[in-house]
Amino acid sequence: MIVFAVVSTKGGAGKTTLTANLGALLADLGLRVLLIDADVQPSLSKFYPLKHRAPRGLTHIITSGMITADAISVVDLSVNGVLDIVVSDTPEGQIQTWLMNQTFRETRLYGPLHSAELKDQYDVVLIDTQGAVGPLQDAAALAADILISPIVPEMLSAREFLSGTMDMLNRLSYRGAPMPHMPTLGPVKALIYRQTRTADATSIAQQIKREGHIPMAGRVAVLDTVVPSTVAYTRASREQLPVHWHDRVTTGATPCAYEIMHKLVWELMPNLEGIEAGNIGEEA
Ligand SMILES: Nc1ncnc2c1ncn2[C@@H]1O[C@H](COP(=O)(O)OP(=O)(O)OP(=O)(O)O)[C@@H](O)[C@H]1O
Ligand SMILES: [Mg+2]
């Protein structure tokens, strides 16, 4: 089982859209996928319709330190594998305050997500995080084996990645070091995300590819896959569908989402390379 967290200290970068679409594609490839909505604003929880809504969610996992069946909801999409979700159920953000007062707050998601039972049950766990610094974001980042950080190639976003996101990651990487029982921060895959076809965006994207690996002494790698900005991502989310179902054929200069999302999945998980969703759900 592998745990990914999608992180960025900049709001609106595309974390939730990316988490939802990655999760659905991985599940469509036949994998058993668990999504975790670790944002106090429950956007991921509402991204897809639910077939079954569990009575519990994120709060129970964090406060009890365990994942039990009554905290796992089921997504209503006809994927080939499994697509479950732990919904965010802390609209007032109480979990942040609760976490703030815990001594081992960093391990509050790591523990339950690395339990033996969960490892038998799922192949991939994908955590959506909130775009604001806080103990919930820290706990989510430290729970992951690999962090994926979308960067929109605009001046402000690129700067935010280098300052805000890097500050957070640096801070957490030091946390892990001195105490052996603490999880250590995983490698970071920066993803150029929502790139428009303007000269500015192209040049900033090139700069990120050239220099993005420099911070944190090799801990960051910039992915080759670039996710373009197209209306398909917004339309698919409005229709509560995975974007690889919604945008399946490349017509113009921009590759379709089916192609891009497969490329991304294969880059993140090379053992899946060449495997395609193929049989697209009936909703498509
Ligand atoms: N590839 C894309 N192309 C164009 N628009 C996109 C793309 N991906 C996401 N969007 C749009 O960008 C907006 C922000 O996306 P999203 O909510 O996923 O960001 P976020 O990082 O989760 O935000 P927050 O920090 O508030 O949680 C949404 O309107 C979404 O539909
Ligand atoms: Mg979000």
Folded structure, characterized:
- Helix content is 39%, strand content 18%.
- 47% of the residues are buried.
- It has a single domain (2-271), classed as Rossmann fold (3-Layer(aba) Sandwich), CATH 3.40.50.
- The chain is globular and about 50 Å long.
- The protein has helices at residues 15-28, 43-47, 58-64, 94-100, 110-113, 116-121, 135-143, 155-176, 199-211, 231-238, 243-246, 257-268, and strands at residues 2-6, 32-38, 50-52, 73-75, 82-86, 124-129, 146-151, 188-195, 220-228.
- Helix 1 crosses helix 12 (257-268).
- It is built from 12 helices and 9 strands.
- The protein has a 9-stranded mixed β-sheet with strand order 3-4-5-2-6-1-7-8-9, with helices on both faces.
- Strand 4 and strand 5 form a beta hairpin.
- The model has no long low-confidence stretch (mean pLDDT 90).
- With 284 residues, the chain is an alpha/beta fold.
- The structure holds adenosine-5'-triphosphate and magnesium ion.
- Magnesium ion (MG) binds next to helix 1.
